[in-house]
Amino acid sequence: MVTILGIESSCDDTAAAVIQDGVLLSNIISSQKVHESYGGVVPELASRAHQQNIIPVVNEALKKAGINKEELTAIAFTRGPGLMGSLLVGTSFAKGLSSALDIPMIDVNHLHAHVLAHFIKENKEDDNQPKYPFLCLLVSGGNSQIILVKSYKDMQIIGQTIDDAAGEAFDKCAKVMGLGYPGGPVVDRLAKIGNPDKFKLNKPHIQGYDYSFSGLKTSFLYLLRDELKSNPNFIEENKEDLCASLQKTIIEILMDKLLKAAKDLKINEVAVAGGVSANSGLRAAFEDHAKRFGWKIHIPPFGYTTDNAAMIAMTGYFKYEDKEFCPMDAAPFSRVVM
Ligand code: KG4
Question: Are 32 and 49 in contact (CB under 8 A)?
Fold first, then answer.
């Protein structure tokens, strides 16, 4: 029996999870509220909150899984990318616990883990995992990538944003409408009751599978600036239609390149991961592509879309099977190439 404790502390969520033989036993997340009033994550406050949260979160994960720490086989932790101060808390904790228990430590790339979240089994019978090779659209606040996944450790980024990430496009446009932070979920909610064809926004023209969202952001800003000149209530009166049009455009940009990649590479197994995969419009676009193009799609349960430790434990489980452990002097990394 292989029992892995996963620890995630790359940004503003302190999380711990236990996976036994690939099956999830517990998944605990403590999200930090302290950043809300700043309109974004404050790194120093994040690392302090991780220090306060990490022991209770790990204890809760073990308790919920019904195991003692002495029963753990290995400890997997997020080594990067992320905020250095935040990563240091999880990394140091993993080092301390693994040396106290005398069990191996496994370092996990946070981005790989988002992709591998699709392999988490919620029960023994769960057999809906993707088959290699598959494409994964990884869309979050910091990344927009199309990844060709050939095995758990062979991932190739075939397209990525050359400027803003999709989540940033949601968040920045939401911010100028005064919708708060993070704006993605608010845009999603308002878009449901808006007209997606009301406003025409710019789409990029770049070669290959790369993305760009800065032109869209600028065209959105100019639209607001021009309309506000004649109608100061323009945003308030049109916010549902603005959100629906913005969301529709972001999704079209994402899906056009993904479809091109799937056609060119003749791959019909397609997954989505990262915070923006919670978006209801993007989920509907995946369902629609499954019907129209015969895709077998993999959309994560909501709990695995944002940062979580279940995906860290899952990746740790794969690496454990290959005996890929990490030395005690491993330092976290804030930036990464996959
Ligand atoms: O993966 P994630 O939790 O972490 C970061 O990369 O920071 O992604 C967060 C991003 C934010 O930009 C947030 O606005 C976006 O995911 N997001 C959404 C939705 N839920 C979260 N964007 C659009 N629609 C949503 N429902």
Answer: yes
